[in-house]
Amino acid sequence: MLDDLRGNGLILHHWDTDGICSARLLLGYLSDKDLINRTPVLGNYYLTQRELEEYGNFDFIIIADMSLPREDVLALAEKAKIGIFDHHLGREIKEVFHYNPVIKGGDPDCYPSASWIINSFLGNDPNLFAFLGVVGDHEKRIQDNPVFSSLLTDFCQEKDIRFDDLVTMVQLLDSNYKMGDKKEVENTPRFLLNKGSPQDILNHKEWQKNLTDLTVAIEKQLREAPEEINNILIKRMHTPYNIISTVTRKIFWDTGKTTMVINTGFFEEFDQFYVRSNKPLEKLIEKGKQNGFKCGGKREVFGAIVPRNKTENFMTHVIKFLI
């Protein structure tokens, strides 16, 4: 698909490290093409009408690390050639080029990030950007994956990089979306294309300041204990920072209990939901979509954007599913 692109193009990528590194890998491979990169409104798992209209001016669009709603993809496909590279749960969109081994039955443990899938598709050797996406989506838990633990150890030894340095790089790259800085998220793939060494990332002053501010905000939220209902931890917070996935992840990993976090402070009229569990969440994702909510996730992760007046009812349904 990538070798048969004509005209002006767009890489539409997720805002986290995996999406950013996926975009960087694609920009490097498609350096001879006329294309730009963009990310959707931060926190949205769908495209707004304004975005659909804006992106309708491109000849080809590559969607990386995002499981956008089928209707959004097909709307874009009316005018543009579409390619999708992803590892999230969902259903294959057969009308476009959709490369996602997970939705075709592949073991998610073998496809831990979109960056890894894209890097392999491009025929590249394992590299910093492929691994940063992996670490970004799994952090230290990737060390429990027998295949990738060994690959990461070998890579770190070869490049004289500590695993903790990779984690810090991820935190720095993620700091932009967590601060709500969409423009910097979109600038970062080209920064990595031109200055993509570990030291370039680790020594980035603005990202370091972001991380300091975010660490304070996250620690504040974690000091306030969640409530527990039927062995499910429920954390409510009101913050303008996009830290819901980080807070959920830390509570879940520290306790081992299913964790649901609701943030009422990021959007004006919607609330963010995020769930992590040892229980498979595929059916919850499907149920949420069937009920008209914008949601997505992976085997152990569920995220949704819910109208504020439906938050309490939605939370009740999620708890019933998780019990």
Characterise the protein shown here.
The chain has 323 residues and is of the alpha/beta class. The chain has two domains: 195 residues, inorganic pyrophosphatase (n-terminal core) (Alpha-Beta Complex), CATH 3.90.1640; 98 residues, Diaminopimelate Epimerase, Chain A, domain 1. The protein contains 13 helices and eleven strands. A hairpin with a 2-residue loop joins strand 6 and strand 7. The radius of gyration is 19 Å and the shape is globular.
List descriptors.
323 residues, alpha/beta, inorganic pyrophosphatase (n-terminal core), Diaminopimelate Epimerase, Chain A, domain 1, 2 domains, six-stranded mixed sheet, 13 helices, 11 strands
Label the CATH architecture of the largest domain. Alpha-Beta Complex
The CATH topology of the largest domain is inorganic pyrophosphatase (n-terminal core)
Global geometry: globular
- The rounded Rg comes to 19 Å
Compact overview of the structure:
The protein has 323 residues and is α/β, with parallel strands linked by helices. The protein is 46% helix and 18% strand. A six-stranded mixed beta sheet has the order 6-7-8-9-11-10, with helices on both faces.
